[in-house]
Amino acid sequence: MTRHLISTRLGNISDRLSQMPEKEVKNNMKPLEFTVRWDEVDLNGHLRHTGYGAMCAEARVRAFAEAGMGITRDSIAEAAPVLLREELSYRREVMLGETVSVTTEISPETTAEGKRWVVVHQVLKADGELACEVKVMGTWINLETRKSVPAPQSVLKAWGLDD
After folding, report:
1. pLDDT tens-digit series, residues 4-57
2. What is the pLDDT of residues 71-129, one digit of tens each?
3. SS in 3 state form for the chain?
4. How many separate domains does the chain show?
5. 139 Cβ contact partners less than 8 Å away, ≥ 6 residues apart
6. I need a labelling partner for 87 at 20 to 30 A (CA). Which of 17, 118, 134, 150 fits?
7. Which domain holds residue 15?
8. Is residue 39 part of a domain?
9. CA–CA dist 117, 149 (Å, integer)
């Protein structure tokens, strides 16, 4: 019952986000490079599913830090990012020892006040071929009230949503 309720609520968020009008959003975050290590592969020598998520989480945390939201108590005093959903779409194998680049873009699905945000990562092989696309949806919460709040002004400015 609880699992169905959570799935239904996340589905509703996804539906609402996909129906929002498109808008220009600043995407000036530098790609990060990673080399696949032995502890990140499965028995077939492929980058395992958790490896993609970990690389993208690192890229996202760095992007938030560039927007003034590092992982420190002071920087999250106003609001902290919380992940609601993560979707991975695999396209090509990534093998042990390969170097990949992870891009981070704020999706136009992000609400104007940034209360609900969507980040899209692309994991690109050395030749530029798309290996995996990772789409994450989240919100900001006030750590005292545990309620969803708009994004901090520094984030809105960094994401080009401060118009």
Report:
1. 333 333 344 344 434 434 434 445 578 999 999 999 999 999 999 999 999 999
2. 666 656 678 889 999 999 999 999 999 999 999 998 888 888 888 999 999 999 999 99
3. CHHHHHHHHHHHHHHHHHCCCCCCCCCCCCCEEEECCHHHECCCCEECHHHHHHHHHHHHHHHHHHCCCCCCCCCCCCCEEEEEEEEEEECCCCECCCEEEEEEEECCCCCCCCCEEEEEEEEEECCCCEEEEEEEEEEEECCCCCCEECCCHHHHHHCCCCC
4. 1
5. 81, 82, 84, 115, 116, 117, 148
6. 150
7. 2-158
8. yes
9. 11
For position 126, which CATH number holds? Answer: 3.10.129.10
Contact present, 114 and 138 (Cβ < 8 Å): no
What does the alpha-carbon distance between residue 43 and residue 46 come to, in Å, rounded to a whole number?
7
Residue position matching structure tokens 């609601």: 84
Q: Which residue in 135, 149, 116, 114 sits closest to 53, CA to CA?
A: 135
Distance (Å, whole) CA 92 – CA 131 = 4
Determine, yes or no, domain membership for 163. no
State how far the Cα of 95 lies from the Cα of 45, in Å rounded to an integer: 6
- For 8, 42, 119, 125, 140, the CA distances from 15, given in Å and listed in that order, are 10, 34, 16, 31, 19
